[in-house]
Amino acid sequence: MPDQQKLQLLWQAYLTTLPKNHSHRFSLLPDAWSFGDSPQIADRLGKLVLNGIKTATCSRYLGENILDEAGLSIILDGDGNPICIIETYEITIRRYQDVDEEFATAEGEGDLSLEYWRKAHWDFFSREAEKEDYEVSENMLLNCERFRLLYAHSNT
């Protein structure tokens, strides 16, 4: 559980960088989450976002309203500390097998290849499937999200 005070401090710092009537000034505190399924992966992927290398992510599509995933998010490191604010601006639903080289590169992981993406994500979804009791397959639907970095914590 992230520290609410730290989340508020990051959010307030971001808001001070915006013009007086910017729409984000009227937004609620965004959801906070981390990438991956371990503190080490959260740290590694968070750094890729901060360095402008990671501009996309994906998750298993559960049939929910994909628009709920759009908008602002606070990204956490492996210790649950807020490191940045991102804005998801595009979401597409694709089958695992239909993810292309361009999206794999935007995910920013490993050598940026589709081959690396497929192995790393198959491994991730396989670990997740063991916990959540679903079957990993080439036809599995994914939320494929593109985002931009809006604000980085000054201590990162």
TrEMBL record:
InterPro entries in the record: ASCH_domain, DUF984, PUA-like_sf
Domain ASCH: 33-151
CDD domains per UniProt: ASCH_Ef3133_like
Protein name: ASCH domain-containing protein
Organism: Hyella patelloides LEGE 07179
